[in-house]
Amino acid sequence: xxxxxxxxxxxxxxxxxxxxxxxxxxxxxxxxxxxxxxxxxxxxxxxxxxxxxxxxxxxxxxxxxxxxxxxxxxxxxxxxxxxxxxxxxxxxxxxxxxxxxxxxxxxxxxxxxxxxxxxxxxxxxxxxxxxxxxxxxxxxxxxxxxxxxxxxxxxxxxxxxxxxxxxxxxxxxxxxxxxxxxxxxxxxxxxxxxxxxxxxxxxxxxxxxxxxxxxxxxxxxxxxxxxxxxxxxxxxxxxxxxxxxxxxxxxxxxxxxxxxxxxxxxxxxxxxxxxxxxxxxxxxxxxxxxxxxxxxxxxxxxxxxxxxxxxxxxxxxxxxxxxxxxxxxxxxxxxxxxxxxxxxxxxxxxxxxxxxxxxxxxxxxxxxxxxxxxxxxxxxxxxxxxxx
Length: 388
Ligand code: RFL
Hints:
The chain is an alpha+beta fold. It has a domain at about 5-70 and about 95-180 and about 265-340: 3-Layer(bba) Sandwich (FAD/NAD(P)-binding domain), CATH 3.50.50.60. It has helices at about 10-25, 35-40, 50-60, 85-90, 100-115, 235-245, 295-315, 320, 325-350, 350-370, 375-385, and strands at about 5-10, 30, 45-50, 70, 75-80, 80-85, 95-100, 120, 125-130, 135-140, 145-150, 155, 175-180, 185-190, 200, 210, 220-225, 255-260, 265-270, 275, 275-280, 285. The strands form 5 sheets. It has a 7-stranded mixed sheet with strand order 6-5-15-16-17-14-18. The longest helix is centred in the last third of the chain and has 25 residues, at about 325-350. The structure holds 8-demethyl-8-dimethylamino-flavin-adenine-dinucleotide. Keywords: NAD, Oxidoreductase. One of its GO terms (molecular function) is FAD binding.
């Protein structure tokens, strides 16, 4: 079997590439390891930034974001005192929109499939071959266990951090950058009312954040020790700690539907391509979640790749594909810096015991500058919106 582009992985990255190239009249097959219900049920991110929104609007995919509210203000609660940051005012109205990742994924899948796209779930043992040559191919076992082979001109590796795509590149062809956080992250997903505004709370009891995930659900983050044992966090302890850290006695509790200690690593590979394989999204980079950039970088990469594939296929111009990695990495490093900056502000500014009194004061000064310097406010708001 033969197609133009094989996309490995049906997360936000792979589904965005697939929708964009399919609408552009380029043949494409998506291979996803899990079944549809699993992929559609994964709850992770909740905000798409302005730059990501533009990727969909430019492609005429407005319906993907139907009903998604704009999100232009966020609250930093410092020792119980609210400070509202008006991102919209500092970024010429360029703000993001609230949409749970699994809702976006669901809509990307139905848009692609209803439009005649070829998406194969439960594709096992995906392996990439001849990525260095002109005729790469992919082998896998289909949902019935039958071995299959797909020949292609280009491969899009959109299979996340643990996928096979990056692992198919000879290690000496990649430079890998890693950085580990000195604090741990604990996150819970709840069926409880979302906050009025996305909320980041600095508190002497440790950092906590609360973000909405649709009309009746929320995601909380709590700072914890690295390698924290989940067993120690009963539901009761979670709600007590949240009330304390958010300085909100009246915080409405609800069922906790998921709890996880997350590995807040920073990770980048350079280049994000090898031969005819192009890495997209988490397959190429991981940013700490607090900056809200993981999903948005995946969409940004996908937009760059789709444009470059169109130039290669329709205009016989390989230039944009050659530039793919450099174009994406510029934004990736910007967002690494932004995510780390924000992480340091909220963690160090919460926890003098871990950060030490000097870094604690620095973090508080950094945050204060957002409210005293219009230039600093603009720089922050531009990062939250994403590049124009
Ligand atoms: P995904 O979403 O992991 O999708 C990869 C897909 O590839 C499939 N796959 C394979 N398919 C075939 N063969 C194989 N060998 C395969 N191996 C894997 C997988 O089943 C899956 O369907 O990566 P993608 O598309 O690059 O998207 C990246 C985003 O999902 C990720 O960056 C964000 O979710 C990160 N993230 C957040 N990002 C934000 O922008 N804002 C947030 O608020 C936010 N919160 C979060 C997050 C990530 C979290 N996790 C994963 C720790 C909160 C959490 C809890």
